[in-house]
Amino acid sequence: VIEQRRPDYPVHCFCPLQLSRRVDLFVDNFPGKVGFAVKANGEALVLDHLVKSRLHFFDAASIAEIALVRQLDADARIFYDNPIKSEDEIELAYFQYGIRSFALDDEIELAKIQSIIGNDPSVQLTVRFKISGAYAAQDLNTKFGADVEEATHLLRQVKKAGYKPALTFHPGSQCY
């Protein structure tokens, strides 16, 4: 396209059939639940096509991403996996958008979440675990994540508080 048209401005290319094939490949062959990280491509056209192609699990990093997914799929399961959120963002996510899964990587975030949502055993609190990012162009574990000792402590605190404990990690961006 670029070679033929030689545009002077950005060109948006979208192949719904190819996207559907990729979704089918994952959904039909992966034994677990398949989701999509909205930050990878937050275009409404793409997300709407993913919803229509049987994806209903989404990882969101902001309220704007949550709002967009909720607009396209009222029943989507959205994981708010940004480990640092403002009190207003937590409140909006929980009360307005029905989010029941939040990530955290320290006790400050745990206390913030608890103070806003109270005791709700339907809520999953996911501890972001720090791993080696040696095989990524951008090692995000220098920015986010709890080490083994911190993660273990946080998971115990989450369980003790009556939430569903879970563990997540981010391998970094542009993995080799």
Describe the protein's architecture and organization.
- This protein has 7 helices and 8 strands, in the order H-H-E-H-E-H-E-H-E-H-E-E-H-E-E.
- It is of the alpha/beta class.
- The strands form 3 sheets. The chain has a 3-stranded parallel sheet with strand order 1-2-3, covered by helices on one side.
- Helix 4 (63-72) links the parallel strand 2 (57-60) and strand 3 (77-80).
- Helix 5 (87-96) packs across helix 6.
- The two termini are 27 Å apart.
- The model has no long low-confidence stretch (mean pLDDT 90).
Overall form:
globular
Order of helices and strands: HHEHEHEHEHEEHEE
Strand content bin:
15-25%
Radius of gyration, whole Å: 18 Å
Give the integer mean of the pLDDT values. 90
Give the class from helix and strand content and strand pairing: alpha/beta
Overall strand count: 8
In angstroms, what separates the terminal alpha carbons?
27 Å
